[in-house]
Design goal:
The protein is an alpha/beta fold and 136 residues long. It is 51% helix and 17% strand. One of its GO terms (biological process) is phosphoenolpyruvate-dependent sugar phosphotransferase system.
Length: 136
């Protein structure tokens, strides 16, 4: 099974995990690293490295971050390793709900692409959706 590590500013990732578990139940091989001003870069790198080791059961680890170009994303990019660690930015709740369904059936790269696509497909402008229903 592919491990999933969420790295976000503050407790955003922890709250996303709590919300996903509220909807779908407990998650396996899912951890969060919080980035805040109380932790130095070296300390964060050690925490990320340790989390990757805990999560990797031979199929790799997908890191989900909150914002491309932010500290969580920038730190994660230093861990990229083909077929071992992949990084996807812009984590959202639909992504977390999907990871528990599919991560046993794919390789890391395909899994990362699928999660990315699923996250994008579940972003809507509510007024457009409602206008289509009213017009339809």
């Amino acid at each position: 099974m592919i491990g999933v590590l969420i790295i976000t500013h503050g407790n955003v990732g922890d709250e996303l995990i709590k919300a996903a578990e509220l909807i779908k139940g407990p998650s396996k091989l899912l951890l969060h690293v919080s980035v805040d001003s109380s932790k130095g870069v070296e300390s964060l790198k050690k925490e990320i490295s340790s989390s990757i080791k805990k999560l990797d059961q031979g199929q790799g680890v997908l890191i989900l971050t909150d914002l491309f170009g932010g500290t969580p994303s920038n730190l994660s990019l230093s861990f990229l390793k083909k077929d071992k660690v992949e990084v996807v930015t812009g984590v959202n709740l639909p992504m977390l709900l999907k990871v528990s369904d599919i991560r046993q059936d794919m390789n890391l790269r395909d899994f990362a692409a699928h999660v990315t696509d699923y996250g994008r497909k579940n972003i809507y402008l509510a007024s457009e959706v409602l206008d289509k229903k009213i017009a339809g």
